[in-house]
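Q: I'm writing a short methods note and want an example of a predicted protein-small molecule complex. Could you take the sequence and the SMILES for magnesium ion and return the bound structure as tokens? Please keep the output block clean; save any remarks for afterwards.
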Amino acid sequence: MNHQPLLRMANISKHFPGVQALDNVDFEVYPGEIVGLLGENGAGKSTLIKILSGVYTKDQGSIYFRGESIDPKNPQDSQSLGISTIYQELALVPQLSVAENLFLNREPRLIPALGMIDFKKMEADARIILHDLGVDIPPNKLLKDLTVAAQQMVEITKAVSRNANLILMDEPTSALSNKEVKAIFEIMNRLKEKGVSVVFVSHRLEEVMKIVDRVIVMRDGQRVGELPIQEASMEKIIRLMVGREVGLFHKIEKEIKEPVLEVRGLSGNNLVKDVSLTVRKGEIVGLAGLVGAGRTDVARLIFGADRRTSGTILINNEPVQINNPSDAVKYGIGWVPEDRKQQGLVLGMNMKENASIAILQRISNLFGVINLKQQNEIVKNYIKKLNIATSSMEKQVNELSGGNQQKVVLAKWLATKPKVLIMDEPTRGIDVGAKAEVHALISQLAKEGMAILMISSEMPEIMGMSDRVIVMCQGRITGEFDTADFDQEEIMTCATKFLVFDSPTAN
Ligand SMILES: Nc1ncnc2c1ncn2[C@@H]1O[C@H](COP(=O)(O)OP(=O)(O)OP(=O)(O)O)[C@@H](O)[C@H]1O
Ligand SMILES: [Mg+2]
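A: Understood, no commentary inside the block.
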């Protein structure tokens, strides 16, 4: 492209204690272009985005936006320049309506001096903005009554309505179903038509290839390459990202033995109805379904995180009473939750403390004194096994990159050496290289005799890893498949069995 870039970042560096997060990075975005910003966990993607959005300040380098030198000091700064950021954690107010969220702090007034909000105008304006982007959401609906995808769309709409020329999206789709992702992509394409540029960060490479015009790849804080999408392939991108070939889905020969976990007639959370399933020693059972099908609820009910209204749980053929998570742990059940920030990690603690929190009793003496040598060894072992990128074991977990936080949650539960491990979206937000490592590890654990129940929304992961697939829709089991009978279309048919299709954004 020979026209002027909309954004040019030159020689950007950023240092954090113990790590050079960005090392002389150049980055440019042209008008009306969607750029994929890719790289392994900890490569520096979010740091670059945060510098641009005014959350972090750069140590060195220059930023030019629409031909002028800029230096955003805070998010308001960057927003008023025409740069809007959409993070994975949504920044909207759940109790307010869609229209109220769109116009928060800039509501139209009936009589400006008196400050009374002109609700009628606000709703009408909101309707126009939403319609303009093809977003089919009623402006008077409360935000909390929308799906995550629809909320995401409101957030994007809000960004656009502030006349942003550049929208930064840091893993906006990682919690969304395929259908919802499609709807977000439609909006991205409309933005492009309007001349708005988008920077898109995602670890779902198939997705990235479908939407972006160009990819820029980072590794260890440096920009290592760039590809126009016409010249890009999965293999090329992966090689740039990790510097080597990556083999996906390690299925290894193993023996599947007697049942370890049996669930009979499980109901609860006003969603799960009469779910029965068995996971055997050495077996990986994939729990498939769309977002909201009740898979996470099944995990929470088994683990005792929520109270079930009916159902029996058996461990090694013995009925057990699980009324809370510590009962579950006592019976040898581990749970890698979906939402690592809320349920997986203690953000005020460092990496070592988090990784060993579930085994403190095992590595302490009678007086409750922790065997520090043992603790260090165990944690060190998992840092190596999972290839966790951290400058030290004492690093605070909130200073780790998103994908590395997920690996710490994994380490925490693996260290307990559970008999049964329930994993909810175990590789969400994890880069391709690490994903292959986590997959190999899951297969190895099964081979060593662990019974694994794996919830995943990624069809290739479900089909590539599982020995058996159970499908859910609206809280019920709607299908079960053995390895030999895996068929993506049939699984999808079961996953949508009770659904009536209407607008992709409706709740
Ligand atoms: N506030 C912080 N304090 C200390 N170190 C930080 C901080 N934020 C990021 N880092 C470190 O900077 C490096 C780059 O992190 P960054 O979050 O930019 O990675 P990323 O490419 O977004 O990775 P992911 O794909 O896992 O989200 C990592 O080593 C991370 O631990
Ligand atoms: Mg990140």
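A: Remarks, as requested: The domain at 7-242 is CATH 3.40.50.300 (Rossmann fold). The pocket of adenosine-5'-triphosphate (ligand 1) is lined by residues 16, 19, 21, 39, 41-47, 389, 399-404, 431 (CB under 6 Å).
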